[in-house]
Write the C-alpha cells for this entry.
Amino acid sequence: MKSSRPLNYGIFTENRSDMANKRTLKKQINAVISDVIDECIYIQETQKNKAQPAEKLIDEAVAFYNDLIARVHAGKNKVDFDSIWNDLNDKSEVFLESLNALSASKNEKGA
C-alpha cells in the first residue's frame, strides 16, 4: 500500500514515487538554480558593493547546475536519482544560507 503523504525535501515537496522521474527532477533543478540566479542579479543591481560575491554565487550555481544535469543524463537507476535529489536539497540550503548572508549584511549596513 502506497502512502500519499508527501515527504519534505528541503525547499520543495515531492511524492516519493516522482523522485526517479527525470522530467520532474530537471524541473526542480531549473527552479532552484533560476531562483538563486534571480536573487543574485537583484542583489547585484540594488547593492553595487555586493556585486562580486553575488557573481561568485552565480558561477557556483551554474557549475552545480551543469554537474547535476550531467548526472541526470547519466543516471540509470533510482539510487542515482535519489543521490541527485539529496545533493540538490543539500546545496539548495547552502545557497539559501549564502543569499541570506548577503542580504543580512545589507540590512546591517542600512540600519
